[in-house]
Amino acid sequence: MIFKRGQTYWYKFASSIKERDGAKSFLIRRSARTKIGTEAVEREHRRSLRLGEIHPLDPWPKPPVPEAPSLRDFSTRFLEYAKLHVKESSFTFYKASVPVFWASRNASSGKSVGEKQYMERLTRPCV
């Protein structure tokens, strides 16, 4: 059933899932988040339920999967966080470690140095 609430169209239908201990039924009532094309949104939701792509209690449409930040972006954000939330000596270590890591990546023309070699370089005493 499609109905209008304010300026937005909503749809409502019943869905059921067969399980070992019987069938469970769900009443799905969602906003189409659009002023037109509600039938297409409802049809796509029903199709996804029928094919088992989603559970009736899952959000629809599926929220986008967040992308992982690049290592360079993450390291700058990490240093900003560490500056406020860790001891000063730990922050000094992190601040010294990140440029060494990036220098090792640039020296090897984009290929990262192995973790063992990287840790040896960090723990080596300064002369």
Structure write-up:
The chain is built from 4 helices and 3 strands, in the order E-E-E-H-H-H-H. The longest helix has 20 residues, at 88-107. It has 2 domains: 2-51, no CATH class; 71-123, no CATH class. The relative contact order is 0.08. It is an alpha+beta fold. The model has no long low-confidence stretch (mean pLDDT 80).
Radius of gyration: 26 Å
What characterizes the major β-sheet?
3 strands, antiparallel
- How much is the average pLDDT? 80
How many structural domains in the coordinates? 2
Q: What share of the residues lie within helices?
A: 40-55%
End-to-end distance: 77 Å
Identify the overall geometry.
elongated
How big a fraction of the residues is strand? 15-25%
Count of extended strands:
3
Order of helices and strands: EEEHHHH
Class by alpha and beta content: alpha+beta
Uncertain runs: none
Spatial order of strands in the largest sheet: 1-2-3
Number of helices: 4
Question: What structural keywords apply?
Answer:
about 130 residues; 4 helices; about 45% helix
